[in-house]
């Protein structure tokens, strides 16, 4: 059987503007592949945040809505309730979802809104200058924690997947890493599962993706992959936390 590797139809024919080594491009492609596989491009709507994820507006080839900082789950809720036959997903980074948007995603999950939430966790604010995020690791340096995150001052990293899995309503909560091909394939299956749940009207799904940020981590692309494996995964273990 001949296999043809090609660009997903749900992605536009444009060059990526993400930093070299950034995982957002991989995340975008996995979402696009899922949308293609279900044939839902014409009725899919993506809700984008403030941050690096906003660049996806130039790459996805379907309708997109830009939400103000942290409010993507609220916008997604309104859109889905108004147009229940549409497939609606939010796409957010850790600064957007776990900081200013924390209450939005928690209440959205607790209500069991019929949407798919994709959370890209690279442990730092990207577009706004590399500040400490809620998921920044203890000891990790940033522009606002130049000596490393001190839990005595800033607390400990938030584990969003574990937090959301405690609610009754969500039907699927999982975390995957994007640092090696075998894990990318697992993430691909997890994202497809999350969209399938919405198509079949099962309920709210949340997929967390451990991602890289070479620019703000101050590491090479190769070093970033090792950082995910040796530093992030012990704190944020990839796992399916809930699958009703």
Condensed summary:
With 244 residues, the chain is an alpha/beta fold.
Topology:
Blueprint: H1 24-38, E1 44-48, E2 63-66, H2 72-82, E3 87-93, H3 94-100, H4 102-111, E4 116-121, H5 151-154, H6 160-165, E5 172-177, H7 181-199, E6 205-210, H8 214-217, H9 221-232, E7 239-243
Parallel strand pairs: 1-2, 1-3, 3-4, 4-6, 5-6
Antiparallel strand pairs: 5-7
Structural notes for this entry:
This protein is α/β, with parallel strands linked by helices and 244 residues long. Helix content is 36%, strand content 16%. The chain is built from nine helices and seven strands. The protein has a seven-stranded mixed β-sheet, sandwiched between helices. Helix 7 (181-199) links the parallel strand 5 and strand 6 (205-210). Helix 1 (24-38) packs across helix 7 (181-199) and helix 3 packs across helix 4 (102-111). The longest helix has 19 residues, at 181-199. The protein is globular and about 50 Å long. The N and C termini lie far apart (35 Å). The mean pLDDT is 95.
């Amino acid at each position: 059987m001949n296999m043809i590797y090609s660009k997903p139809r749900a992605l536009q024919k444009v060059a990526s503007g993400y930093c070299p080594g950034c995982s957002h491009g991989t995340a975008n492609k996995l979402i696009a592949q899922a949308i293609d596989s279900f044939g839902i491009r014409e009725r899919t709507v993506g809700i984008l945040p403030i941050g690096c994820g906003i660049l996806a507006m130039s790459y996805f080839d379907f309708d997109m809505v830009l939400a103000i900082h942290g409010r993507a789950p609220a916008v997604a809720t309104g859109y889905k309730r108004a147009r229940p036959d549409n497939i609606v997903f939010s796409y957010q980074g850790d600064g957007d979802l776990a900081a200013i948007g924390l209450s939005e995603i928690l209440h959205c999950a607790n209500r069991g809104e019929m949407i798919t939430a994709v959370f890209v966790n690279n442990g730092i604010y990207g577009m706004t200058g590399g500040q400490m995020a809620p998921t920044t690791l203890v000891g990790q340096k940033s522009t606002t924690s130049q000596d490393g995150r001190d839990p005595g001052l800033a607390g400990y990293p938030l584990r969003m997947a574990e937090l959301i899995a405690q609610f009754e309503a969500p039907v699927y909560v999982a975390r995957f890493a994007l640092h090696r091909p075998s894990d990318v394939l697992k993430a691909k299956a997890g994202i497809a599962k999350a969209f399938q749940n919405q198509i079949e009207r099962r309920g709210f799904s949340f997929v967390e993706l451990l991602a890289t940020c070479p620019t703000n981590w101050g590491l090479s692309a190769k070093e970033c992959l090792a950082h995910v494996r040796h530093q992030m995964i012990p704190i944020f273990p990839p796992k399916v936390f809930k699958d009703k």
